[in-house]
Amino acid sequence: MAASPAGGAVSPKKHMLVSVLLLCAVCLLLIASILFFPRLKLGKITLSTYWIVALFGAALFLATGQTDVVTVFRALTADNAVNPLKILVLFLSMTVLSVFLDELGFFRALASFALRHAHKGQTRLFFSLYLTVSVLTVFTSNDIIVLSFTPFICYFARKAKVRALPYLAAEFVAANTWSMALIIGNPTNIYLATAYGVDFVEYLKVTALPTLSAGMVALFALLLLFRKQLKEPLGGSAERVKTEDKPLLAVGVVHLAAATVLLALSSYLGFEMWYVALACAGSLAVVSLAVSLVRKKKPSALIGAVKRAPYPLVPFMLSMFVMIVGLEEHGFTGRVAALFGEQLPILKYGAASFCASNLINNIPMSVLFSSIIANAGGAALPAMYATVVGSNLGAFFTPIGALAGIMFGKIVTEHGESFGYLQFLKMGVFVAIPALAAALGVLALIV
Q: Deepest in the core among 38, 92, 120, 121, taking most CB within 10 A?
């Protein structure tokens, strides 16, 4: 431990204060980077700044002695469910499985089909989009849906001569509400659930009804919010999208379905979820390469899926993990848990995680809250589920709430549409808060 000027040891309280101040400074810089300088250009290379800021914060924690390399290494190599390396392997593997289908046009073709059959006005079109996104999000992930559907919606709105805003809002809200249903829907779900030994089926039993209630409330709130725009007549026509490589598409669908089923059975089979996801992604790669060799063609879909995997999430999550390790060492997370107490954990942790997601983003929030919940005693399990709810629904209160929001804003701007901070906040007040209340209310009746 570092020595004080008087020659004595630095008190734990001072160490904790320094750690908290450093984390606050990093979080403020993180918010500023997302809002004002989201990308950094180095010649022909463009880098997202959010993970660079997080990496800088982790370096500060190490340099100032708030934690050390040995402690971090032990945490990263620990054979437990909260190991972030296992969670990253699980998330990236599932992402590759989903993006492979997107490279073949699967999601856009489904969206095109749904939208082309919603020909009796904008309200039906709105319902069709919301339903399509909701169903697909449950079995893939919110980030994949946002990446896949946002460009299509911007293009479709121009062709159909309608305002894109209601449909962009419906897509983003649906993707970040129904992502609560399964563990694989959001990296925050994966992190929190695996940290507390909750398996695929047990998780679904608890989250199904809160997700359904939040999804219905969110849909009703969106209809009220955009009722005037949805009364405007439809013009133009929907884009017709076809999938060209049906054999490879079948391979991709089978692998994604197999991964989902095996994840549900993993606890009964004795396999960890990260291993199942990695094995399915590896099998997809082998089969795809074999098909390409037989055809004597380049494995374009596989290459595209590997290239599009969200690699910046790796340094971002690991850097935040380093800072949380520092806070844990000096007792901060235990103090927060004591402050919350064991009474009304669903309300306290649900509201706090919802707000914290919009201060430090939902992934680092989940890493932080996982450690806090570990000190929550008998309230740990309800607190964990409440934090899952807050981490998902907090994503559409402000654009800072989730990485999906950052990607969403970038794509929308690139396609000539506008969805700024104030529009996000308006959507958050009218949609996210009622959905949060509904989900936490139902959760309180279940847990």
A: 92
